[in-house]
From TrEMBL, chains A, B:
Gene: glcK
This protein's name: Glucokinase
Pfam family, one: ROK
Source organism (scientific name): Candidatus Bipolaricaulis anaerobius
GO molecular function, one term: glucokinase activity
InterPro entries: ATPase_NBD (IPR043129), ROK (IPR000600)
Entry's family note: Belongs to the ROK (NagC/XylR) family.
PANTHER family reported for this sequence: BIFUNCTIONAL UDP-N-ACETYLGLUCOSAMINE 2-EPIMERASE_N-ACETYLMANNOSAMINE KINASE (PTHR18964:SF149), ROK (REPRESSOR, ORF, KINASE) FAMILY (PTHR18964)
Keywords attached to this entry: Kinase, Transferase
Keyword presence, Cell inner membrane: no
EC number: 2.7.1.2
Length: 298, 298
């Protein structure tokens, strides 16, 4: 859509997998995906997609990561899920290697940008990832709501039950602790007495196990409450859901929507992402068009 | 600050009082305040402040109201608190009377705009009214977050306790039903067996009445939870509080802040408005600079 996006590289560092793509205009011309390690592997993968695309060098590189970060310095801060990335100066390192401007942002914000630039293209919406954790990205009037330091959209850490179960963030009763995949897996494993993934807990619920069913129903109720809260605060045109747990939307969706129905005035429009796993990757590609100047390359 | 604001009229329609002011640049040159009635009284008061200011006619008129509204049509929709305003075509009526562009917006959004244009002038903040009801206005990157139809910022209607007390909006356990002045007055009167205002319930709490104390403590906890939720979702630089209940901030503030402390990661900056009761009035004056073109005068 914009000049800077001609021949751009996008990098989506996930908790388990990293995706790298070369994009020309709106078309992915080359891509790699591999288990998440550190910056050396990302540098190498960028080299590979450049070669596959037949480009000498990219116009820009955009990187999304599921970690707290210093946007001004382009550095990832301490994050237990990404041990190889603690303190890594992402933008400096990649700028040095590929001699082009590099942009870094939160992965859920990237997914929202992906929807804005390549997906449904609405101007007022929220993107919500329902996965191991729960994250969000907010667009208002066609612009990203970044917050004071770029950390806005932390919908997973709104406290719904002050006396609820502990969250990885140190607080209690966060939405993520009630409805996130990691929590569902942990609480399901405890309740059923065997090690289960979130997907397996959902499958057990679907097959009628009462313990799993109660846990899953509670998670859906909490997610619906979180969506209703977003709706009242932001009045988005649309709420877009992505992330692994939406793979079971046929079973989970009606429960989530029933909860939204009792907790929101009006009827929020809710749909699943049409970009699949690529929302964050495509958003990373489009970062140069959306990152505010104070956080852009210097 | 901007040309359109030379010789502007601001109108703040409150649940009990209406304020009208003539503002030149940043200075209020004439003002009127009177018990809220209908549009005839507003028209008359505008005439009076124009005469007092010595203006033939205003450049613009901005109106804030605590009611749902159709921004496109400049019309106030059904609102039990404002019986004289149901269905009134505010912008058309005033445009006809004063032959200038007229703008209409929600009063809490106006208060946020007042802070942006005349108050602390931060670029990422939330304004929160803690009064009979609870409302909010959101500014991100120096721009108002309006939502799809201009109704964003309804922080009073986020559900914190799905099984909590009924709210005037028809839902249960909304922040407003837990911490708003009307709810505090009603629940306090029930608990103490006599008709009390919210201010009186707070005074009883301050003097050590255990029932009043428990109710007020619960309201402060809920407000703190709401503020923490805003912080996680929006990461504002600042949260500004206004409204009648902040008059007792010396007693209430520490309880609210303690709740924020346990429910937000990080330390949100929170301060009371420095514009007193004029935040909404001044924001109404500045509306021409902030209302998006699709909702402006035609």
């Amino acid at each position: 859509m914009i000049g800077a996006m001609a021949r751009a590289i996008g990098v989506d560092i996930g908790g388990t997998r990293t995706r790298v793509a070369a994009v020309e205009g709106e078309r992915i011309v080359a891509r790699r995906a591999f288990p998440t390690r550190g910056i050396d592997e990302v540098r190498e993968a960028i080299g590979e997609v450049l070669a596959a695309a037949g480009w000498a060098r990219p116009a820009t590189i955009g990187v999304g990561a599921p970690a707290p970060m210093d946007m001004r310095e382009g550095r990832i801060l301490g994050c237990p899920n990404l041990p190889h990335w603690n303190g890594v100066e992402v933008t400096k390192e990649l700028q040095r290697a590929f001699a082009c401007p590099v942009y870094l942002a939160n992965d859920a914000t990237c997914a929202a940008i992906g929807e804005l630039a390549f997906g449904h293209r609405r101007r007022d919406f929220v993107y919500l990832t329902w996965s191991t954790g729960i994250g969000g990205g907010i667009v208002s009037g066609g612009r990203v709501v970044w917050g004071a330091t770029g950390q806005a959209g932390e919908i997973g850490h709104i406290v719904l039950r002050p006396d609820g179960p502990p969250c990885g963030c140190g607080k209690k009763g966060c939405l993520e602790a009630l409805a996130g995949g990691a929590s569902l897996a942990r609480r399901g494993s405890e309740a059923l007495g065997e090690a289960l993934s979130a997907r397996e807990v959902v499958e057990r619920a679907q097959r009628g196990d009462p313990h799993a069913h109660a846990l899953v129903a509670d998670a859906c109720r909490a997610l619906g409450q979180g969506i209703a809260i977003l709706w009242e605060i932001l009045e988005p045109e649309l709420i877009v859901l992505g992330g692994g747990l939406t793979g079971s939307w046929g079973f989970l969706g009606p429960q989530v929507l029933a909860s939204v129905g009792t907790m929101a005035r009006g009827s929020p429009e809710i749909e699943l992402t049409r970009l699949g796993d690529d929302a964050g990757l495509l958003g990373a590609v489009a970062l140069p068009d959306y990152v505010p100047p104070q956080w852009g390359p210097r």
